[in-house]
Write a structure and sequence with these properties.
10 helices, mainly alpha, Tetracycline Repressor, domain 2, about 190 residues
């Protein structure tokens, strides 16, 4: 039922997944849907969270094979190329994000997936010696999500375009380039 719900969300949209269509797709009686889940919404949330977790886990698993931060970034960004923006998984992400703006339980489930992804990314970035690993993981995670969501509007947003730009996030900042954020403003005020 989880797989059937995820497929239907990606094909038809969040609210188009009814008990009847889900039961037909899963090859079960409608009563079985409510026997295993408190509500249809609970099933949709579980399906979205599981599929999103699988994508996040797959991406972070690739990092373990990377020799350094640059290679890891390349692997995780290239993995996004399998999502065209018009595929069922991309649409599931889009539908779930949109629905989460109106559903606190779904928002918490997606936030849990993001938290797990960021914590794994943070640990890997720290091991790779990247400055400010937690902050970098937050920005990198948001950028990767954005790339996946934007592909529906801009299919040319591939790893070849994105990777060189995001690589800058992992580049060390020379000590001479670091400021407290106020130096440039003070000079501009003179």
């Amino acid at each position: 039922m989880i797989t059937a719900a995820a497929e239907l969300i990606g094909e038809r949209g969040w609210s188009a997944v009814s008990t009847r269509t889900l039961a037909e797709r899963a090859g079960v009686g409608p009563g079985l849907v409510h026997y295993h889940f408190a509500s249809l919404q609970a099933l949709r949330i579980e399906a979205a969270a599981q599929m999103m977790s699988a994508v996040a886990e797959g991406a972070t698993a690739r990092l373990e094979t990377a020799a350094d931060a640059e290679e890891g970034l390349a692997l995780i960004i290239r993995d996004l190329d399998r999502f065209s923006g018009d595929d069922p998984m991309s649409r599931l992400f889009i539908e779930a994000y949109l629905a989460s703006t109106r559903d606190e339980e779904l928002r918490r489930a997606i936030s849990g997936v993001l938290e797990l992804f960021r914590s794994r990314l943070t640990a890997w970035l720290a091991t790779a010696g990247v400055e400010a690993p937690e902050e970098t993981a937050r920005v990198l995670g948001a950028a990767l999500d954005g790339v996946m969501l934007h592909r529906a509007l801009d299919p040319g947003l591939t790893s070849g375009v994105v990777e060189p730009m995001l690589r800058r996030l992992l580049a060390p900042t020379p000590v001479s380039d670091r400021t407290d954020g106020h130096e440039e403003q003070r000079q501009g005020d003179r």
